[in-house]
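A common beginner's mistake is to predict each chain separately and then try to dock the pieces by hand. The better habit, illustrated here, is to supply every component at once so that their relative placement is modeled jointly.
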Amino acid sequence: MIFASLFFLYLLLPLNLLIYYAVFRRHVYRNFVLIFFSLFFYAWGEPVWIVLLLFSASIDYLHGRFIERHRGTSLAKWGVISSLVLNLSILFLFKYSGFVVESINMLLGLSFPVPAFRLPVGISFYTFQTISYVIDVYRGDVKAEKSYFGYLMYLSLYFQLVAGPIVRYKTIADQIASRHVSFQDFSDGLFRLTVGLGKKVILANTAGALGALYLDGDLSKLSVAGAWFGAILYTLQIYFDFSGYSDMAIGLGRMFGFTFSENFRYPYLAKSATDFWRRWHISLGSFFRDYLYIPLGGNRRHQFGNLFIVWFCTGLWHGASWNFVLWGLFYGLLITLEKAFLGRWLEKIPALFSHLYLLLAVVFGWVLFYFTDFTRLFTYLQVMFGFAGAPLWDMNLQLHLLNNLFWLIAAILCCLPIFPALGKLAQRHPPVATAGALARTVLSAALLLISSTMLVGQSYNPFLYYRF
Amino acid sequence: MKPSAAHRFFTLIHCALIPSILAVGGILAIVLPKPTVSQYERRELTPFPEFSLSSLFRGEFTSQLDNYFADTFPMRESLVKLGARLEDMRGIRFDELRLHETTPQPSQPETPVTLPEQNSASSQQSGSSLSVQSSAASSDASASSSSQETSSTATTDPGTVAPEQYNSILVYQNRAMAPFGGSEAMGGYYASVLSQYQQTLGDSVTIYNLLVPTSIEFYLPEKYQSMTNSQKDSIDYIYSQLDARIKRVDAYTALQQHTDEYLYFATDHHWTALGAYYAYTAFAQQAGFEPKPLSEMEKRTISPFIGTMYNQTQDAKLLENPDYVDYYITDTQHTAYQYVKNSPHYGVPISVWADYATGGNSYSVFLHGDYPLTRIDTQHKNGRKIMVVKESFGNAFAPYLIPHYEQVFVVDARYFQLNGEQFIKDNGINEILFINNIFAANTSSQIGYIQRILTQSEWYYPTETSSSSESSSSSESSSSSKGGGVIVIKPDGTKERVEESTTGSSAGKVTVQHSS
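With all components supplied together, the output reads:
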């Protein structure tokens, strides 16, 4: 199931709130309510591979306990290794086995049967969560969870289960044991939820539908400006989609008393690729930093090799296809250059240019990210950079721009930190805060209404084959 | 800093309001009666899924339940309309022009529909050889068209080219128009299929081809013409490729001379009876008779009419400017028989015009919409018997032929269930008119249907019970999971379910009954 569906919003969520808050008072029961709803939520979209989630939760709960019992001995180390092998094997089997066999076949001209596992929803996210838990326990950063259900709740919590953020156990360990939710918390969470919903449904879905006309269309009819427009729409789509989802996860968390770390901090305002990755999908970047880059030796030993490995893995994590690897290595290259000399330049030149540099890199990066088909990727890039002899401008684009002008402006504005600015203002002026509380209520309701009309509209099917 | 009392009050309101909206929506969704059909969208809504363990484990049960919930959401139609309003506010209509896009459909390879085999024993004998023959012919056609079209970079195999969809619709000054794509490959395929008819039937049958341009050809301002391909070029190309014996009807020029008249609907993709009339005058030239003047016919009107283009775009401007449907009754004595689906040998007497057609279905006034076969008998014993092979544009046209023919057989290429060659012989048909709008003549599925008629053996749509059991067992990705399919709402308000053709292929393709 996904958050941006009528079934979740109008049935499952109110039911969950009702049972959680009105029926059960005791903390333990409330945790069971959350586990029940989380498993239901997951099983809704993944009725078979939920066993994998339960398996992962069980083995890592046991690994955690094992490591803690044998802390300081070599057994603890073996515990970590065993957990890593198990988790990464599962991830490899389901996510990468087909890709690897296919690549080997292509490289060596062989024809091994390609395994075709369907990727279980959220496996990339929860595998990383569980890895971070086991390593943190080993490092002594956090105590192992005593209760199996406590651990199961941490791993399966539906807010972040299917699309992140990658929540570390140590950040919410206390909240598993006890939580308190004030009205202010609940209201903050609700607002975050509706804002995320609006980002996903009003901005991301619209950008996606419009962008698909350019990205998935007939590339021989694409104009240069059209190619850029498509790439920019995808840039908007992926940000609003992903950050909207994180907002919803964080918002839902707050409504139930969890405080998740921020996952996005206005990434398109960055001034360098290094800066971008401190703002984009923060929980993933920090995961690779803490559990891969630094253990490899960070910037103390063979830094460039480490950067290569990290960015190769970052790319590959996003999907089992070479274009994601290319995309990851592209950032790896930029960040290496920035560490070498580019970063100092970028700080000296006017901010406008460093912003432009980053935006250009990001848009280019998303084009790499979008096309899993390399032929289409290269054709698209050729059109974008004027090597295909395509016209500069076309009439469809002009109409799309005009017909969506206000929406486009709104979408671009939503990439800017407007709410934080208003929040700061409110902190200084109480009347603004009061007005803000009212405005929030109205905005929440409006976003919910608009999103609902659009979600209803998605099943709108005006008799597609009516034509003759 | 402690928040003010008002602040806390608003926070409380917020906490109470949003969950209440969600809960009330959910309760209404459960307690309100659930519609099964959307009159507005002309389709059957996703039904509540049947539970089975296998559908649960395949994820079909839950995904259909999601669809069911969304399809039957309280006040869904109002919300959809509100959504359309909001969509209109996304930008400005420069030049009163707005471009509506439908998300590109995943293109399914279009192949002529495979036919069920459980027919009479006699037809089954020839069935296999015929199907081989037709597939060979289709690859012939693709070969010939690709050789003519070597310069084109596009896929030139008509068998695999995705059907020409209305990917976008332009609304210009309250008139909705679909940009035309079309390709020489498709046009060549169409021409080769018609030529195949002439070659098979020989000189004893006169074949006419009439291609109908659509409104975008005449009503889009010059500066936006780059958004659509020239229909004139496509028509000229097809005419240049046809067997020399086929008579080309120049409806284009006839229509072009009257573009200041009401030739096309603004909210619907069809032409009006007046547009069809001018095409009829062009046809009369080729067929060698004098067209009846409109003044000799009785004009009737249905109003208002808001057509398919509105359903597609939800464009408020279209809703504000409805169309009307004029139709012209001939005084020639005639009797018409309608052969519905799965009744290819037995027709029921019926009137040519369905006076009761209203609202969104007003275009069905002509021949009641699309049926496999409509036969019209007249008192003229002049020996002229014509078969009109058409899609829905032909519906408005066919009635004009009544005064000139002894018999008119109106055949809808998509649904006709008999062997065409045999049908032509049995009925002594000596003229065939292929009338297609230019989009249809560039759509592989439509061309495939026309090709199929000539060689197909008599076939039947599977009955409802057998089709559902077959589709659920045969293909995993069955269309049943999407629920329902399409419903055709007939002018009299009754509905007709869309049949699923039992294709042997995995796709579980749905043959859609088009409503006019």
